[in-house]
User: What shape does this take?
Amino acid sequence: MILPIVAYGHPILKKVAREIPEDYPGLKDFITDMWDTMYQGDGVGLAAPQVNRSIRLITIDATPYKEKYPEVGEFKKVFINPMIYKAEGVEFSFNEGCLSIPGIREDVMRKPAISVRYLDEQFQEHDDRYEGTIARVFQHEYDHLDGFLFVDRISNLRKILLAGKLNDISKGKVDVDYKMMFPSLKKGRR
Assistant: This one.
C-alpha cells in the first residue's frame, strides 16, 4: 500500500523516534508499504517518520545511484533501531533533496564514513561501516529518526531565503506525483 509522505512542517518530523520491539504489530507489512511508498516517490531512502510513524526504521535502495556512483552497487537494506556510533573524515558537501520537502535541493555537509549498528528484518544484529554515497544517504535518513531535516543543516541565510517555499510546502502549495500529508490543510492529504 502506498502511504502518504508527511510534508515539511508536520510535528512528527521534529520528534525523536522510538525503538521498535521485535513483536511490533504488522512490521513486515509496514516495511513492504515503506518500499512501495519510497519507489512511488522515486526516492532512494525513506524513514518511518516520513510516513507518520515515529519509530526507528529506515529503508534504503541506492541502486538508482549506481550509474553515477558505481560503488553503491545493488545496495538495498532495511535498518531497524540503527545507531551511528562513529562518523569520521573531513566533512564534504553533497546536494540533497527529500520526499518530505519536494522541489528543494541544497548542499549539505556530512562526514564521508560512518559505523552503524542495526537490526535487519529478522532482528539479527549487524555492525557495518559505510562510506561515500551510502554513508550520505544513511545519514540523511538517520536524521529523520532524531527529528532533523536536511534544511536544519544549511546556513541561516539559506533558511531565510527558503522560508517562503518551505511555508508553501507545509500548506500543500506544491506539485508532487505522490501522495502527501500536509500539516496546514484541514484534511491534511492531497
User: Anything to note?
Assistant: The mean pLDDT is 94. The longest strand covers residues 76-88. The domain at 5-181 is CATH 3.90.45.10 (Peptide Deformylase).
